[in-house]
Design goal:
The structure holds 2 protein chains of 2 kinds. Chain A is globular. Chain A is mainly α. In chain A, 44% of the residues are buried. By secondary structure, chain B is mainly alpha-helical. Chain B has a domain of 173 residues: Orthogonal Bundle (MetI-like fold). In chain B, 69% of the residues lie in helices and 0% in strands. Chain B contains 15 helices and no strands. Classes of the chains: A mainly alpha, B mainly alpha. The interface between A and B is large, with 94 and 101 residues.
Chain lengths: 287, 281
């Protein structure tokens, strides 16, 4: 970049970055730092007293049974993994079978709307599928009472929404697999399944890895609307994923210190995932 | 295609149809429900063919809304549109300016600005929701469009896309424009912007959908009906006992909420795919 021509102006560049920097500082750095700061204090909900408690908000998360933080962690991991697996397997399968871009529009459906769609299908009183399961299969469906069913329902809704995103990337990935390699393998007598696993799938691994990270991020952080709309974290705490818990403890239970401590833990997790992703992308540039 | 026998040729079409059914079925059911009366929906099993109350349900949803909601789909669609356009256009404008400065100018704080913007990529609003709420509330922006839009404009995705694109622009063009006596801003307006049309429209599609589909943030800061976005309205309509929900109105509203972003994707499909798969680079 050093040899490149650059404009010389004293104030203009600062003026140009100013709007972005103001927004970034007011709505990103200030709140983020405030969140970290708050996580060291105990605050009564009405803004009266504030007591410095050090790391107590953090230790409370893991020691106080009423938080069930470990449990929420476990649920989030299971949920994100289930969503990533289901939506990626379906998307990859579809991408290998049907290279049509007409399947991308569900990407435009809001996560919250995906929740409403599946809620309506499985609603114990009016849902078509709930009715069919009860009367045709003899399965009593009530995700408000059965925690496994609740988990399954939010997983289905979240995966359904994510299939088209994965589909687009897998399709792009598949199109970059050189056709002559596949044909050469076919001439050597490898059947479609063998060709897929020994040639196409390994060549797709950069796409697969990228999508895995993106889907885990989606499962962890972007599925709040589905949980909030479909199960409200219930029954009990069966679908109370970490992001939902931050919101619930902060907004509903007004435990600002505890909620901030959870936010900080989430921030560290996202940074970790982002670093993994960037290191990986860097490597791929050389590859 | 390497395969030549009939089964292997027909099979993909079968899968495609199955996939379309899986993807479309939930939306089809919503459409069906939006054409029936609430009594018909509640009488299990719900009918699976369209009913005759299409106009009635949609006109009620659009003009009056659910009972007890206190606002109509028309108002909520307007709010969603303002939010989506505000976020997408706002983000594009400030990102273009910032990327222009970072790529084409040499200034002292350039590295610092770059990293300050870069780091925002890492933290989605979901994980700093409470402190952001407090900042917006301190600024007196609860229940305002500015409060809905500004915190969502933060993320750096657009700056990066434009920065990447600007770096591919040959510098000789900038130098030549300078020799011809154009100011940097004239270069930006007359030469750079027209060249950036494709990345801008790709960014617009993605950010419009992102803005339209925001849920957690408006849920937190809109407490007055006149600022409800359409997704928040749907949530409020559903937050009663099942038997009290007016399903036909909720389903009509859901379909209305789903149409604008889906339409944007279908109409701008090419830019959308380019924008989406470019983001990873």
């Amino acid at each position: 970049m050093t040899q490149q021509y650059e404009f010389k102006a004293k104030w203009l560049p600062y003026l140009l970055v100013l709007p972005q920097m103001v927004i970034v500082f007011v709505f990103f750095f200030w709140p983020s730092l405030q969140g970290v700061w708050q996580s060291f204090f105990l605050q009564d909900p009405f803004g009266g007293r504030v007591i410095f408690v050090g790391l107590e908000n953090y230790t409370r998360l893991f020691t106080e049974p009423s938080y069930a933080y470990g449990e929420s962690f476990r649920i989030s991991i299971a949920f994100a993994a289930a969503v990533a697996m289901l939506s990626m397997v379906v998307a990859l399968f579809l991408a290998t079978q049907a290279n049509k871009t007409m399947m991308i529009w569900p990407y435009a459906v809001a996560t919250m709307v995906a929740g409403v769609l599946w809620l309506f299908l499985f609603n114990p009183n009016v849902g078509v599928i709930a009715w069919a399961m009860k009367h045709k299969l003899g399965i009593e469906w009530n995700h408000l009472l059965d925690s496994n069913q609740a988990f399954l329902l939010v997983t289905l809704a979240a995966s359904w929404k994510q299939i088209s995103y994965n589909f687009v990337f897998f399709l792009a990935g598949l199109q970059s697999v050189p056709n002559d390699l596949v044909e050469a393998a076919a001439i050597d007598g490898a059947g479609p399944t063998r060709r897929f696993w020994t040639i196409i799938f390994p060549l797709l691994s950069p796409t697969t890895f990228y999508l895995l990270v993106m889907n885990l991020v989606y499962g962890f952080f972007e599925t709040f609307p589905i949980i909030h709309q479909v199960t409200a974290g219930g029954p009990g705490k069966a679908t109370s994923i970490l992001v939902y818990k931050v919101w619930r403890d902060g907004v509903v239970n007004l435990d600002l210190g505890g909620s901030s401590a959870q936010s900080v833990i989430l921030m560290i997790m996202v940074i970790g995932l982002t670093v993994i992703q960037f290191r990986f992308i860097e490597r791929r540039v050389h590859y | 295609m390497t395969e030549h026998n009939t089964v292997q040729r027909v099979l993909p079409h079968v899968f495609l149809i199955v996939a379309m059914v899986i993807l479309l079925f939930p939306i089809w059911i919503v459409f069906i429900a939006s054409t029936h009366t609430n009594a018909e929906i509640l009488s299990a099993p719900m009918p699976l063919a369209p009913g005759s109350h299409f106009l009635e349900n949609y006109s009620r949803a659009i003009l009056e809304g659910n009972k007890n909601l206190g606002t109509s789909a028309l108002t909520m669609l307007k709010n969603s549109l303002i939010m989506a356009l505000g976020i997408s256009i706002g983000k594009i404008v400030i990102s273009l300016l910032a990327a222009f400065a970072i790529v084409f100018f040499n200034f002292k704080l350039r590295k610092f600005c770059f990293w300050a913007i870069f780091i925002t990529l890492m933290l989605p609003v979901e994980v700093r929701i409470m402190p952001t709420y407090k900042v917006v509330s301190d600024l007196g922006l609860l229940n305002t469009y500015a409060g809905l839009i500004l915190p969502m404009v933060v993320s750096a995705t657009a700056v990066f896309l434009f920065r990447q694109f600007f770096m591919t622009v040959p510098r000789e063009i900038a130098e030549a424009s300078q020799i011809d006596g154009a100011s940097p801003m004239q270069f930006f307006w007359r030469i750079l912007l027209p060249m950036t049309r494709t990345p801008i429209s790709a960014m617009f599609v993605i950010q419009f959908i992102y803005g339209w589909n925001q849920y957690l943030w408006p849920l937190l800061i809109t407490t007055k009906q006149e600022y409800y976005t359409i997704l928040i309205g749907i949530n409020r309509m559903l937050s009663g006992a099942d038997v009290l929900v007016e399903w036909q109105i909720v389903m009509a509203t859901t379909l209305l909420a789903l149409l604008p972003p889906a339409l944007v994707v279908v109409v701008m499909q090419k830019q959308f795919i380019a924008g989406m798969t470019d983001r990873e680079k």
